[in-house]
Design a protein that fits this description.
With 124 residues, the protein is an alpha/beta fold. The chain contains 3 helices and 6 strands.
């Protein structure tokens, strides 16, 4: 397994997933084909279950996210939640939102309500 690095565009977020457990998603998420963009990312996180680092922190800083992206990001969160629930690693998700963006803050709270993993929502 190796790091997963994807450069962001004006429609897709940058992905910086390190095998040491430092995971970052940042930018805008409105890809033309959401499934094609996110499937390799979901697969990478799924593979992480086979070589779990002692701690995993996923930091998400999205200025905009469409509905189809939201569903696949939730899939990533659920895999991390499964790792956390199995007690195989310490896991934390950090949701960063612009302090003026109530919709994005609410999106973070919606995710948090569906998960057991520590989920911190912070304004920047």
């Amino acid at each position: 397994m190796q790091d997963l690095i994807i450069q962001g565009t004006n429609k897709t977020p940058s992905i910086d997933f390190k095998i040491n457990g430092e995971l970052k998603i940042e930018g805008r998420s409105i890809p033309e084909n959401t499934y094609d963009f996110y499937k390799p990312i979901v697969n990478w996180v799924e593979t992480l279950k086979n070589s779990i680092p002692s701690s995993i922190t996923l930091t998400v800083k999205l200025e905009y996210i469409n509905t189809s992206s939201s569903k696949l990001i939730l899939e990533i969160f659920k895999i991390l939640d499964e790792i956390f629930t199995s007690k195989k690693s310490e896991v934390e998700i950090v949701w960063l939102y612009d302090y003026d963006d109530d919709e994005n803050r609410e999106e973070g709270h919606n995710y948090k309500s569906e998960l057991n993993v520590p989920f911190n929502i912070k304004a920047f």
